[in-house]
Amino acid sequence: MTQTAGHMSSEMQQCIQECLTCHSVCLTTVQYCLQMGGRHAEARHITTLLDCAEICQTSANFMLRGSELHTRTCGVCAEICERCAQDCDQFGDDAQMRACAEECRRCADSCRRMAGMAA
Amino acid sequence: MTQTAGHMSSEMQQCIQECLTCHSVCLTTVQYCLQMGGRHAEARHITTLLDCAEICQTSANFMLRGSELHTRTCGVCAEICERCAQDCDQFGDDAQMRACAEECRRCADSCRRMAGMAA
Amino acid sequence: MTQTAGHMSSEMQQCIQECLTCHSVCLTTVQYCLQMGGRHAEARHITTLLDCAEICQTSANFMLRGSELHTRTCGVCAEICERCAQDCDQFGDDAQMRACAEECRRCADSCRRMAGMAA
Amino acid sequence: MTQTAGHMSSEMQQCIQECLTCHSVCLTTVQYCLQMGGRHAEARHITTLLDCAEICQTSANFMLRGSELHTRTCGVCAEICERCAQDCDQFGDDAQMRACAEECRRCADSCRRMAGMAA
């Protein structure tokens, strides 16, 4: 994206990338959870993963549009990523869920910085 | 939506409807503004309309998924709708812009109630 | 939407409305299915409902933007709605699934007309 | 995405990546065009860029969900990317527009392969 987004701070470029990656990981994890069934497929858990995927997409789009309001969407994205990470933590040593939790936390950190929020 | 969303409060059903209407009006207004050109088509104004359309869609989707986190997306949606309404106010007696501002304010009011925020 | 979309044919306005309704019904049905569990919550079925919800949203947005390319998105939307309806048919006399199948077929019909496809 | 999408073919992983990149480039190009004004900001051109960004996002999401129906969305995505590339070609030696056209063609090629379409 260097050429086409040269005016963006590297911090914003990184945040966009985290949001897109977190979006992808959450959608992939939804499929994994539905195939696992049982506790993995509980409505509340699938909903949180879908919530996280969607707000990451929205948050990335605000930054890609160069919107001044991106601090607001990054703020709510950080909160929802953090919640999703906590949800994924409950599955202990399941590798997919741990990878998802880690990506959610990386994205939450990055969004929190963009939103100018204290950790 | 009565049959398929019978468990929802009527306040939430109304908020979903406002978000979907506001999303539609903002996207239609983008076209109007691009065709008008000049001040209507300034980057900052088009971006705000696209921001408002997208956060309304996201906010509606959180409610349709029955997500507990809808208060967060409704909160940020209220803020962005309010900003978009102020932007549209600047065009004085342009009927399309006034209709858009009015819908943004109705949606902001409804989202604010869902978010439990004071006006 | 009368005031803000006065230039649209009434057939297109109706198709936008069907797409928005079908999107809402599919998302609501995802929640219902996840809460039912069992066959309702099979990965393939949930995926089809999410697919249908998303392409309906995309198809509505193309029309709202006044895009010439809406015939293409309406075409693929009609196919996916039809597939989703068939999936929902398998649940016999389950009222929610039947309502979802009916809305998917209404939306498929409307999109097929917009796409200029034969039934 | 290696860990979380290990079951995907490398061709699909590449197509997802092209769709996400093309989506990002198109949204960034919308901002560029709105700031340039004049012919860059014509309604039809901005609409095509927004169309392309949205169908790329939708197409990526179908693949990320593991949907069988991704061949359909990839097919229409290839068509719309190709159209967007042709639109961008009209701006001659403008570096941003050329970069956008190139990414749209890369994405169209990749989507065409996923859709099993002949070039």
UniProtKB/TrEMBL annotation, chains A, B, C, D:
Q: Give the matching InterPro entries.
A: Csp_YhjQ (IPR005560), YHJQ-like (IPR044543)
What is the protein name stated in its UniProt record?
Ferredoxin
